[in-house]
Write a structure and sequence with these properties.
The chain is of the alpha/beta class. About 40% of the residues lie in helices and about 15% in strands. The protein is built from 14 helices and 16 strands. The longest helix has 22 residues, at about 325-345.
Length: about 425
Amino acid sequence: MKTKISEELRKRAVKVMPGGVNSPVRAFGAVNEIPRFIEKAKGAYIYDVDGNGYIDYVCSWGPMILGHNDERIVEEVKKQLEKGMSYGASTRAEVEMAELIASLVPCCEQVRMVNSGTEAVMSAVRLARGFTGRDKIIKFDGCYHGHSDMLLVKAGSGVLTQGIPGSAGVPEKCTADTLTAKYNDIDSVRSIFEKYPDEIACAVIEPVAGNMGVVLPEKDFLQKLRDICTKYGALLIFDEVITGFRLGIDGAAGRFGITPDLVTYGKIIGGGMPVGAYGGKSEIMKCVAPVGNVYQAGTLSGNPVAMAAGITQLKILAQEKGIYERLEKLGEKLRNGIKKAADDNNVKIRVNGIGSLSTIFFCENEVKDYESALRADTARYSQYFSGMLERGNYTAPSQFEAMFVSAAHTQEDIEKTISDIEEIFGK
Ligand SMILES: *Cc1c(COP(=O)(O)O)cnc(C)c1O
């Protein structure tokens, strides 16, 4: 496989960009590979500057649920481009976007658009604090909510310890009110609430975790979390940046039948453009400026080009029959194929997944929280990753991420990938 041009670009990139990238995982540091510089993508395929094509299982980390460069989205974006790229004033598209989300997701009576998932969660937490008049927040080990200071927390040794910053540059004061609980462990949540019954503004969670690899909520865990938040007057925030409009048109909230107080979106909602959003009950959302006193703003928020892409993608997802069934079937087929390939070759792995999201964990133990995820063998993941890349499959360059399938993937694509995995496991 040729990589010459990618290597040249990499040399230039590292001189002028930290690590040669604008987001760390792209540096391929966890898998010891040459990061491929991408030139173009179409449908389920992505092509690098050296002319190699790959079946894409990253899908821009989720946004490209219809596959790359869906013509219907491109068409609407082009139309908007003719009319201008940004006005810094209200547009029809923003109203349509908010109406669309409100009509699709019952718990979102009102919505505020922002420019990234990070911004969405940061703003939702501020709103929860403003609404409740409380400062402490609960987050779960292994869940990622973007890179805002208060959410960049490494787990303390015990559940009741205060958050220790997981990054240099984050003052301890910024994470002192971030309390960490264990995913799928309701007792760890309960003991925090018992210690601080009147001080917790919200619990924020990925209803299906995607950022420690895919980890599913155990039966009733989310319902119990809902109940406990209600009991103590804390808001429940579902961070649906990955799961929103993916696990179904109404996301994880709809799929599991749980009503969060606030929801955050990103990725899919922008159709490939940089977009995020948060929403919830009007009673809570009316605390946001200019109606209320929780300040939050954005020069490019609700950008018309981004709205054109996002609205078009959401409408297709809402209207086209069979899309979610198709994503379920493709995901199921992939997972079953991987499991069979592992069994046939006596390779010990765990495959977690739901719908279009999957992760192969290179370990024998069940993976149900951050601790168990960390037992996976990252060196073996690396080998698998290189084998996949070599054979034309572009998967996440880290053990602790999801494998995404899009509606543009075909049965044949999945079959080819499975047979490549068989070959890799056979070695
Ligand atoms: C990606 C992600 C974010 C951050 O979104 P950005 O657009 O990268 O800022 C937040 N929460 C979850 C669950 C994510 O997967």
